[in-house]
Amino acid sequence: MLKERTLTITPDALDSMITDYHWMVNAIKEMRSEMVIGAKTAQYGIEATLPKAAGGVGDPIMQEAIRRSRNIKRVAEYEQKLLEVQNLIERVAGDREVQVLNWMLDGKSQRWIATNMGLSHTHIKNIKDSIVKQMVN
Description:
By secondary structure, the chain is mostly helical. It has seven helices and no strands. Helix 1 (11-34) crosses helix 4, helix 5 crosses helix 7 (121-136) and helix 6 (110-117) packs across helix 7. The longest helix has 24 residues, at 11-34.
């Protein structure tokens, strides 16, 4: 049985996770498509006797593979943040709040949401603050 993680999220951290949610989803998709998984191949013949660059891998393709494999940790961090937000979504009550939250998670700006809901930008900010309070408590 999986243990549910109990983590205290600050309102500012949650606000940031909601704001960054959309780009993190896109970043995860992109980084996953770029990840290269493979092992370093051994060199045979004359290549095996040639001098190698000191202090690192001389193969530019391998360097690129190493660079991309470092994204695994970043992807895991982004996924954790997305899961934290997803686990707290059910705490949000009220039709306006749910709609504002969904649009924010879709990457819509507060100004765009205000225009499409016929509300002021300040009102949307207040609704967002209410959403964060509901999710944190």
